[in-house]
# Entry
Amino acid sequence: MQWINALVQGLLLGGLYALFATGLSLMFGVMRIVNLAHGDLAVVASFLALALVGGTGLPLWVVIVVTVPLFALLGYLTQRVLLQGSLSSGPMATLLVTFGLSIVLQNVLLEIFSADTRTLDSGSFATSSFHLGPITVGWLPLVTFLLAGAVLAGIGVFLSRTGLGRMLRASSDDRETASLVGADSRHVYGVATAIAFATVALAGLMFAVRSSFDPATGPSRLIFAFEAVVIGGLGSLWGTLLGGIVLGVTQSIGSQIDPAMTLLAGHLVFLAVLAFRPQGLLAGRTA
Amino acid sequence: MSDASPGGMNRRSFLGAAGLGAAAIGAAPLLSACGGLKGTGTSSSDVLKIGYVSPQTGALAGFATADTFVVKQITEALRGGFTAGGKKRTVEIIVKDTQSNPNRATEVTRQLINSDKVDLIVGSSTPDTTNPVADQCEANGIPNVTTIAPWEAWWNGRGGKDGEGFTYTTLFFFGMQEFADCFFPMWQRMEVDNKNVAALWPNDTDANAFRQGLGPMITKAGHQVVDGGAYQNGITDFSSQIAKFKASDAELFTCTPIPPDFQTFWKQAQQQGFKPKLATVAKVMLFPSEAEALGGLADNIATDFWWSPAHPYKSTLDGKTARQLADDFAASSGKQWTQALGSIYSLFEIAVQAFKQASDPKDRDEVASKLKAMKINCMSGDLDFTTGPKPGIALQHPVGGQWRKGTRFPWDVVIVDNTANPAVPVGGDLLPTNA
# Structure
């Protein structure tokens, strides 16, 4: 029974990882940008929400609904102002820009909010649960999992059904040819970053409700997003969900065997995928 | 836009880039600017320089909240100077930031020794600071006192030899025995149906010291340890530990995780139905900000308190009481006191005392010998460096306190058990964490 419990909890945890990895996958898939500030952006979103809750006294769910689009806007601006310029200088330049951004964000947060550990207080929601037979399922992980599924499905529909989505895919495949037929790559990239930022904000907020955050927590969260992306397969949206779930379940089962194995088990699966199936479990189009 | 190679990065270069990024993250502290603010001082040759090393930024920054305030307090208290070695002396304090990184701690300590030419170095908070700082001081013959690190970590981690001890480095804090003296009486007072103690000890230096040190003491005291297993710090899910604790029906709980992990664990434990009757935690819940972050779930979590405004201690510099120091801190910073406030204050008291006792405060060997023989009744209580478990160590005796809703600040500490240090007045009854 403990094994089933581990499986269920791992599955739900995978939802959080997937939600977290979506933005990373999207930004790399479309613009070939490896965003090293991904984890820090999640923390920034958490602090933004914290400030909004403190400043306006609005309930947390309203703040989340406000923060996510706000972050999307921020993403669009970041791409147009900060990242677009470095794109032409090759992948190393964007990498360094995002790395610099990561350091700047951490220190700005420390300056403004101090090093205190914070959390987003969702009242009893964070700790309430229901029983599924002998297994206790928390509402928060369940909602996070469902959100991850909904977000990925939504992005999938957007990419395949809408004109903008098609342009996004076209720019991703071949930017110059797409520009020839009228796709403004700068705008398209801005939209992709906006979506990525919105998802990372949502993931960051769910993370913040689940545990806690301080200005230094960003980088440690980045690694899980990387692993989920690589395990699932670059460029595949559902691969990201699968990658997140595989990572979550592996960690959870590993922990059940021996708690010392928790993170190691995840890393080993990551390594195994790299060694034996480097295109990822669900390979999308070749990047 | 210019025509950079589109899609010039494939999967392999993504991974390469990611790896490079990860390496770069590790190197971050080296890239950041060197911090450090200088205290006041004159340029006369009778200035005694004290270097202070602490983690003011990064993961351990919570320990250093009171740094600026303490340095200001000390500078003010010593404004008139003092007599040492037959001359009037003034003190200059040079502050360095470790950025929570042991390598950086080594580097800034070297700077203090080589560039700033300090006469004595004090350092605070966690073995990641105390050990590299002390190692540098020992190697370079600089008198040194540090605090807020279990003495076992400071002693064993630096290869201390029984009977000999170190020449230049000293520490005041406590160890496993004192944790036991603080926690066990509370466990015995709490009426529980079984003797199981759930223990959340990760796989790191601190927790392994608890596993090897406190574990046998718990067994000896007639309890049974239910070890959740040596997990790695930074995991996001504690389901397997919680399942194990639930299966054992443990009503007592103890832990030494890193603070963010405790927040995750404690919420998840509530969610999945592990509600121990009494939680006595170590290493976490030391600061009000942590209690605030946990919200209602922080109620009646017990931990060890080696300093609080309720402790009956006074400054050797200006006679200020612990209560006054905490109030002044609140007034000047708008923040609530932390335990580090008293400890950091005492570092400077001890330094000044050693200077005063030495016939030549510039003689490093003599100052170091005064540190090792120090007996002082200061802001951290009675400290005796001659009777510690090892040479050069003075022991403090923490008492049990519980977090409760406060009046002035959202959360405050009530001392509930003073068995380990009867001088500290008890402020309230021991209550179950989960009734």
